[in-house]
Structure of RNA helicase:
Amino acid sequence: MPTLVAATRVLLLAGDILPLRRLSLVSKRAPFCTTVRSFSQADRENGTLTLASLGSKSDFKTTNKRRPNNIVHSEASIELQRTEEKVVKSNGVKEVGVKKSLEIETAPFAANSFPELGLPPLLLERLGKEGFTDPTDVQSTAIPVILKSHDVVIQSYTGSGKTLAYLLPILSKVGPLKMKNHLNGNESGKKTDVEAVIVAPSRELGMQIVREFEKLLGPVHKKMVQQLVGGANRSRQEDALRKNKPSIVVGTPGRIAEISASGKLHTHSCQFLVLDEVDELLSFNFRVDMQRILEHVGRRSGSDPRATRDPLTSRIERQTIMVSATVPFSVIRAARSWAKDPLLVQAKSVKSVESVPHSEPIKLSGNSSSTNSSSNLPTESLPPALKHYYCVARVQHKIDTLRRCVHALDAKSVIAFMNHTRQLKDAVFKLEARGMNAAELHGDLGKLGRSTVLKKFKNGEVRVLVTNELSARGLDVAECDLVVNVELPTDAIHYAHRAGRTGRLGRKGTVVSICEEPEVFVVKKFQKQLGVPFEPCEFTEGKLIVGEEKGKSR
Ligand SMILES: Nc1ncnc2c1ncn2[C@@H]1O[C@H](COP(=O)(O)OP(=O)(O)OP(=O)(O)O)[C@@H](O)[C@H]1O
């Protein structure tokens, strides 16, 4: 292999899964077996796709201490100072004014347990029953802020528990588990209005979020949440809306906008609008549907959004929550125009979105040794325990390399990403022909086909799931121990989401990118942008051999 020099040192690669807080998530399947490899040092360079903007000026101080179980909790006193800043008024005229002080009470980060976060007793009971004991960092930070009714952008690495970070405060104020004294929007509005709308860019993610809600609502109340995803029978969804009068709907932009336009989904007095994977929802494909959703959810009764074209002026009470592991500046810009005094919430910090400077790009990694030194509040998009490798293979040998990679790492649950459906089908055919249990997952499959494949993969009936960008975001399969990029993603953001399908919630995970020789520079670019080392490797005699890059000395 041209990029590798001879193996130098042998060490054990322990790929076992870290202890989990939630036993129900632990796979019965064996973790990675011990594998022999040589050791190398990969290049670490500064990132260009930096999120430094997010950390330029901390609005408050935190002190942190490590807890067992890989959970960090911190104590903080936050006071967002009165700042003289430019406020863009709804009529488009910029004014300089004093923005009202945003005060967040002391202690939101001191929470060790869910009861300390101020969640209602019925919800705490359900959490306990489902085996959730300790909040993750991002949950400890986000939950009190959302309970205080702030609009937020939640950014934290893949698999860090962002879904519960917004779902728990919503269930504290909406539906049968809510706080006794909480008055909701519907008490003054129409009985048929939903109170929370959650938008996700794919059906799979939408359905996964619904399952999280259902889990906490329990069998008796699970009809309080309704899924409105594309590809499923629309009239059945409309019937369910009419019959069950759900408090919460979760869906894809197209279907939500469609049913809303038909007058069968009433969201005007909605309290919460969540945009999960917000950076994806900002893409051109969703533009028209998202515009409708932003204009109608939580719209002030009697106002005509078409008169102003400004979603902010046409609503009063809606709380907007935007979520993603990757927050490019477009999200910051969107938060400024869609949300009210939005706060950027990360694992151990809260700051005003207004304080994020325009000019600085968003940093994808918190690796201080390799990233922009001007940032004092690093952000991370990738789970810290992930290992990143790349190997060089000719295009015609890629599937064989994938197979050897799976064997060498003794991976039990693998997601292999490709870019084109036809090649993806060929890959499954080749793997199956070589005796490896594989299945395809892509948009050409119907809703039923997609859920069946996913179910089989989650059950362990399928070892290698060959898929495309469809599965890159949000897909939560705890057992996934290896992600392979058989074809490289388009950019570092897509890499981060693909890679984040493994190593979730403190588990170990491995990501291998198989590239052709002329593509090595792309991998180097990802390494630079993400601020994590990518080690060159090859698979020989059933082993992962990690090499050093030419010209590098240890
Ligand atoms: N406090 C907790 N204790 C135990 N398990 C948790 C906790 N919070 C979340 N989980 C579990 O962790 C897994 C990952 O959570 P989740 O899917 O919300 O991550 P995420 O940050 O949204 O990831 P992504 O960015 O990839 O969408 C889920 O299976 C979820 O049920």
Observations:
- The two ends are 19 Å apart (CA to CA).
- The chain has a mean pLDDT of 76.
- The CA atoms of residues 4 and 547 lie 5 Å apart.
- The pocket of adenosine-5'-triphosphate is lined by residues 21-22, 25, 132, 134-136, 139, 156, 158-164, 325, 474, 476, 478, 500, 504-505 (CB under 6 Å).
